[in-house]
């Protein structure tokens, strides 16, 4: 008698729940991915963020109030929210039935690159009127990709080589699903120019191109690029380039285990102290402590990063 195929969502729950072993936020070795757990009812308010966010409920439930609409995110479902929308939420949870969610941020660079590729390949679904949020069942392909992403957390080589592929797969699946309208809200020609500016910055981030050079490369004026970039990405071009340099350094520290000074130099920093200050501001720990922590373990409660 043939065996039933394993349930990818059940596998995801079994993998993720042990990582959220205590209440609060738990960081992982991938800054885009973390977990949240509450053992008691909570009221939350979320403000502006430059990132779109995906939350997969593993247990418990959360009511989300956004743009005059109410959405229920409970076990076996995922919610997609655009960072430009503020929302309020009520979490239903208890010690016996905690609320546990796997959270994933979609960086503007990843979302933008994938969106451009799908547009050029004419693989995007027909544009729908954008809702404030999307809630839907976690299907098998999405759950499977999330499982593979969790699998690679504890392996430096897999995390470096495979995690970007899994993140890209997850982004493609969301952009070609009913959630696409939330992620694509307000796409215009200027959005595409800004996305191409992001790609230009990515290619030249370590030498810190001036905004005039970036604007010329995407056929925009300096003032228009600065205004639209901040509006769409949520930060100015210089800050975006700095985040890319810090991500380069983070990968060097974890995957190649270089010294802090080497990571700073290869990421385009002239000053190690300046690099260390920016790194701590971005990731919550000094570069050395960050590397020591995540080389020993795959997850860390965020409360431990406050020092």
From TrEMBL:
SUPFAM superfamilies: Homeodomain-like. This is AraC family transcriptional regulator. Signal peptide: none annotated. It comes from Leeia aquatica. Keywords: DNA-binding, Transcription, Transcription regulation. It holds the Pfam family HTH_18. Residues 195-293 form the HTH araC/xylS-type domain. One of its GO terms (molecular function) is DNA-binding transcription factor activity. It comes from the Bacteria.
């Amino acid at each position: 008698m043939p065996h039933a195929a394993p349930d990818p969502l059940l596998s995801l729950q079994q993998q993720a729940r042990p990582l959220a072993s205590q209440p609060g936020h738990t960081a992982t070795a991938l800054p885009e991915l973390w977990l949240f757990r509450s053992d008691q009812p909570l009221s939350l308010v979320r403000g502006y963020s430059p990132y779109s966010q995906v939350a997969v409920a593993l247990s418990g439930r959360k009511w989300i109030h956004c743009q005059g609409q109410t959405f229920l995110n409970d076990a076996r479902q995922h919610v997609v929210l655009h960072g430009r929308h503020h929302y309020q939420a009520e979490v239903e949870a208890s010690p016996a039935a905690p609320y546990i969610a796997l959270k994933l941020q979609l960086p503007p660079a990843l979302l933008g690159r994938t969106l451009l590729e799908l547009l050029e390949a004419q693989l995007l679904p027909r544009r729908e009127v954008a809702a404030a949020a999307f809630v839907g069942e976690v299907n098998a392909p999405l759950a499977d990709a999330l499982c593979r992403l969790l699998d690679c957390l504890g392996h430096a080589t897999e995390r470096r080589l495979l995690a970007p592929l899994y993140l890209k797969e997850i982004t493609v699946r969301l952009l070609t699903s009913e959630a696409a309208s939330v992620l694509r809200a307000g796409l215009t020609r200027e959005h595409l120019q800004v996305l191409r500016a992001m790609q230009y910055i990515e290619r030249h981030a370590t030498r810190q191109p001036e905004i005039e050079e970036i604007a010329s490369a995407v056929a925009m004026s300096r003032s228009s690029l600065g205004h639209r970039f901040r509006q769409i990405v949520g930060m100015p071009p210089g800050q975006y380039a700095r985040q890319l340099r810090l991500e380069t350094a983070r990968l060097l520290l974890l995957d190649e285990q270089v010294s802090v000074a080497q990571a700073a130099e290869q990421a385009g920093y002239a000053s190690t102290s300046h690099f260390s200050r920016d790194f701590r501001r971005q990731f919550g720990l000094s570069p050395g402590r960050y590397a020591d922590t995540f080389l020993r373990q795959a997850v860390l409660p965020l409360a431990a990063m406050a020092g």
